[in-house]
Design a protein that fits this description.
It is built from nine helices and 20 strands. The longest helix has 20 residues. It holds the Pfam family Peptidase_S8. GO terms for molecular function: serine-type endopeptidase activity.
């Protein structure tokens, strides 16, 4: 039996469990969908973003990402940017005095492979001023520059869309040793605690998820567990591949353009020429027509120096034709979301730049212990006990399915490259308008 013949995997939940799960999944889908169509919902999302902003300002310095936010005239979603910072495509000899009032601000673990650098303002700047300064560099000095985009998981902070508790789909069972292949999950990291059910056995923890850093400490932070969930998806579809989980975010699922870029480059280098699929369940839009510059450079660097590497990325949850990056960069495979019946999910971004899609509604995967939501009095409490499983929705959870399927095909054939495996995966399958090829892997939750 080939791995492809096992797809889609069966849904083994009881009717009672499925009815329970549908309630949580409906809330998730509503939260993802309504900001695109409802003024009141857009206001509610703005309030929610401001709440996250206050949490970051109160966070310990080593876990905080203070940010600014604004809504472009062409959009309905808030765009987030690191406070007082720009990303510039400039060499070291160009940085001194490049922009009065700014100085280089390198992270300790900045990749030496990156030319792009961060400039930090010596005084406080609002978003309008940052965008104007970036435009001045582009227009007057012909140096590409932009705000240092925040790269929240799935781009949009999803309001009250948090996971629901469910049961394991099946005991973990390896299929037998296959040919070497690795999936690098660049995300929130994975929980440091080993599970007793075997689903994280052998997963390499290059970055761990602290889970609950911000008050109240008895609750899971926003987006904690996201990397654990993505890794569990990979294990379900490709149980024999190597999974390495990296962390590029601070608390509440907030990463930056440069941090994401550095982890993408690190993952490519860590593979030492072996077959690698990089899973990027995150993204950010272009700002003022300029895509995130550090990630753009990282994708180009990997294509030039590690051409065997395949990057798979989430298309985003805006429900429109809004290119999200890295998904929309040339060479990256963008993945949209479908309902369990393979019809388009209303929240999924779409367009000619989306290569394929799979079920992204009510996906079941591994989660972390604790209690949600992260703050009191904003939703019904959900408690996750030992070895927990959860339901969650969004394009964040379609990309790892495709990454895993590519890895599974590579595991069957030691001569198959990830890029050739992707082509094999999508060949002969039906298409969905503006969502590429439909690939049915996990069952999701029917609504």
């Amino acid at each position: 039996m080939t791995v492809a013949s096992r797809w889609p995997l069966p849904d083994r939940r009881t009717a009672e469990q499925l009815a329970h799960d549908k309630e949580a999944v409906r809330k998730q889908v509503t939260s993802l969908t309504t900001p695109n169509a409802d003024d009141d919902a857009r206001v509610a999302q703005e309030v929610f973003v401001e709440r996250i902003q206050r949490r970051q300002l109160a966070a310990p310095a080593d876990h905080a990402t203070p940010f600014l936010h604004f809504v472009p005239r062409s959009g309905t979603r808030a765009v987030l940017a690191v406070a007082n910072e720009l990303v510039v495509d400039a060499g070291p000899d160009e940085l001194d005095g490049l922009l009065p009032g700014y100085a280089p601000a390198d992270r300790a673990d900045r990749s030496p492979r990156r030319r792009t650098r961060v400039l930090r303002s010596e005084g406080r700047k609002n978003v309008t001023e940052l965008r104007a300064d970036a435009k001045r560099l582009r227009d007057e000095k012909k140096i590409m520059a932009n705000v240092n985009s925040i790269v929240p998981l799935g781009y949009v902070i999803k309001g009250n869309s948090y996971p629901g508790s469910t049961v394991a789909p099946a005991p973990f069972a390896a299929q037998g040793a296959g040919a070497p292949v690795r999936v690098a999950v660049i995300d929130t990291g994975i929980t440091a605690e080993a599970r007793s059910d075997g689903w994280d056995t052998g997963v390499v923890r290059e970055g761990t998820d602290p889970v609950n850093v911000l008050a109240p400490l008895d609750r899971i932070d926003w987006f904690a567990g996201h990397g654990t969930f993505a890794a569990g998806i990979v294990r379900q579809i490709a149980p024999d591949c190597e999974v390495v989980v990296y962390r590029f975010t601070s608390t509440d699922g907030l990463g930056t353009d440069e941090a994401a870029a550095d982890m993408m480059i690190k993952a490519a280098e860590d593979a030492n020429g072996g077959r690698l699929i990089i899973n990027a369940s995150f993204g950010a839009p272009a700002v003022d027509g300029v895509p995130p510059l550090a990630m753009q450079e990282a994708v180009a660097h990997i294509a030039a120096e590690h051409p065997q590497v395949l990057i798979v990325a989430s298309a985003g949850n805006d429900g429109k034709d809004l290119p999200l990056y890295p998904a929309a960069f040339p060479g990256v495979k963008a993945v949209g979301a479908l309902n369990s019946d393979l019809t388009p999910a209303n929240f999924s971004n779409h367009g000619s730049w989306v290569h394929c899609s799979t079920v992204g509604v009510g996906i079941v995967s591994t989660f972390v212990e604790g209690k949600l939501p992260p703050e009191d009095h904003i939703g019904d409490d959900v408690t996750f006990g030992q070895d927990p499983w959860a339901t969650w929705s969004g394009t964040s959870f379609t990309a790892p399915q495709i990454s895993a399927a590519v890895a599974a095909l590579c595991g069957e054939n030691a001569t198959l490259t990830p890029k050739a495996a992707f082509d094999q995966l999508v060949t002969g399958r039906p298409g969905v308008p503006e969502l590429g090829t439909a690939v049915h892997l996990l069952p999701g939750t029917p609504l």
